[in-house]
Amino acid sequence: MRNKNLLDIYTILTKKYKSLNWWPIDKKYHEKNKTDPRFEIITGAILTQNTAWSNVEKSLEKLKEKNKLDINSIIQSKPKELSEMIRSSGFFNQKTDRLREISMHISNKYNQDLDKFFSKDFKKLRTELLSLNGIGPETADSILLYAGEKPVFVVDAYTKRLCQRLPIDVEIDYDSIQKHFEKELSKKYSGEELIEVYNQFHAQIVIFAKEFCRKKPVCSNCPLSSICDYTNKLL
DNA sequence: GTCCAGGGCCGTT
DNA sequence: AACGGCCATGGA
Predict the structure, then answer these.
(1) CB A201 within 8 A of CB A153
(2) Are residues A130 and A180 in the same domain?
(3) Which of A47, A105, A156, A194 is buried most, with the most CB atoms less than 10 Å from its CB?
(4) Where a domain ends, among A123, A147, A171?
(5) Nearest nucleotide relative to A93: CA against C1'
(6) Average pLDDT over residues A176-204
(7) Which residue, counting CA atoms, is nearest to the C1' of nucleotide C10?
(8) Which nucleotides of chain C does any protein CB come within 7 A of?
């Protein structure tokens, strides 16, 4: 049976993983420093590009130690200082440029005001994000969904792998997969609830793929084995 | 020691 | 349009 139903998959994964707190932010830091917590998500989205989150956490801690986790501080920091603080995230020279570029953009065009930034029509905002050097579709969509709370489904390497293995009948490119997920999920959900489903489902897929649907799959005890062709082929 | 992680860009076919 | 090389650290 090809073309697995996304709603079925979501139901199964929700049963297993309950409610995930996927993109934690340090609320206390931002309350104390009167900084915008959404910028921590923007920063994390860039730092985690092809990088383990554990390495990103170290960088975020360093930025917080030095009270630099805000747009203005990033702009004011010397590039060398900044790249040293985010060293643990890897690709630190590029990521320094990328953090500075998006910070400059939000500063120049929105006066460093993320309320203004995110109040823009999110489809236009997506195009705008993609025009920045170093912001590709996944980073843009992570920012839109997790910081902006916009109804945008985030696709990543794990989502692609899941689609190939189950399989889900869709072209394996970012936009096709995203469209398919958004179309299917918005049949059942809407508004705030849809946003929460996008949030949870993406998080579930990442956790699930790390645990079971790895490059070398661990199919024993996989919660999706009953509907996965890949598993059944192996057996 | 090797592999790879919550990508994206740029140059070559 | 598709593909390969490149960017770099730290944990498994």
Answers:
(1) yes
(2) no
(3) A47
(4) A147
(5) C7
(6) 97
(7) A55
(8) 2, 7-11
Mean residue pLDDT of chain A comes to: 95
CA A53 / C1′ C7 distance in Å: 17
Which residues does A29 contact at the CB level (< 8 Å), separation at least 6? A35, A40, A64, A69
Among all protein residues, pick the one whose CA is nearest to the C1' atom of C8: A90
* Cβ-based contacts (< 7 Å) between A 168-197 and strand B: none
Q: Smallest CA–C1' separation from A55: which nucleotide?
A: C10
- How many domains is chain A partitioned into structurally? 2
Per-residue pLDDT averaged across A3-22, rounded?
Answer: 93
| Percentage, residues of chain A above pLDDT 90 | 92
A23 CB below 7 A from strand B atoms: yes
> Where residue A14 sits, what CATH number does that domain have?
1.10.1670.10
pTM exceeds 0.90 for this model = yes
Q: Kindly state whether residues A85 and A174 are assigned to the same domain.
A: no
Residue lying closest to nucleotide B3, CA to C1': A215
> What is the domain-level CATH number for residue A97?
1.10.340.30
